Amino acid sequence: MQQDASEDAPPKQRVQDEIRKDIILGALPPGTRVTETALASKYGISRVPVREALRALEAEGFVESKPYAGSTVSKIPVDDADDLFFVREALESATARRAARRAAAQFDSGAPSVEWWQARKVLAGVLDEGDAAVAQNRLDLLPELNMRFHLGVAELSGSSSLTALLRQISGKIEWLYATDVNTRGKESWTEHRSIMAAIDAGNAAEAEKLMAGHVHQSRQGYLSRFASDPV
């Protein structure tokens, strides 16, 4: 089993990742009051990194803090969903296109780089984990795996700028995905194999088209559901 990278992260980053994950998966629902003392006890850490983590999560939009009222978990960003999906579709279409072009270049060179092979191997593992989760009906595992897949494609693109931009919104995307995972989770996951096949084949136009369609379908499904079922 692959070691969780968060195990080697600094205390603040580790607890920040844990709190964010609990918010995304609903263990800390919107409106929940969160205190440094309670969170320090929950995660077995001192209050200082918790305080720093809450400030960072507030900047990300996961936590709201008000004077004399403390901190609470933010509402799921339904109002921002359309804009987030719009940005995501543009970003991820570009990363898929660039990833396919880079794959073609790697194989044309006759000796793909170790860095590229390692990134592709990680993605293969993510796809296998997701397939197993779907087979076992463990849909709760898909939000994180979905995020890892899409960030993995961005890594394969070789564009540090596009990858950085996607990372900035990846948490919100995972949050939205988690709220809708029982509706489109299985179907959405199976689409990843086709996207990956186009990338491996070096077919930039097809990879771009499939990724754009994949994100667009997620957007349409999410918005049609939550337009009449506000969170």
Automatic annotation (TrEMBL):
The keyword Nucleus does not apply. Keywords: DNA-binding, Transcription, Transcription regulation. The keyword Phosphoprotein does not apply. One of its GO terms (molecular function) is DNA binding. Residues 9-76 form the HTH gntR-type domain. Pfam families: FCD, GntR. Signal peptide: none annotated. SUPFAM superfamilies: GntR ligand-binding domain-like, Winged helix' DNA-binding domain. SMART domains: FCD, HTH_GNTR. CDD domains: WHTH_GntR (cd07377). It comes from the Bacteria. This is DNA-binding GntR family transcriptional regulator.
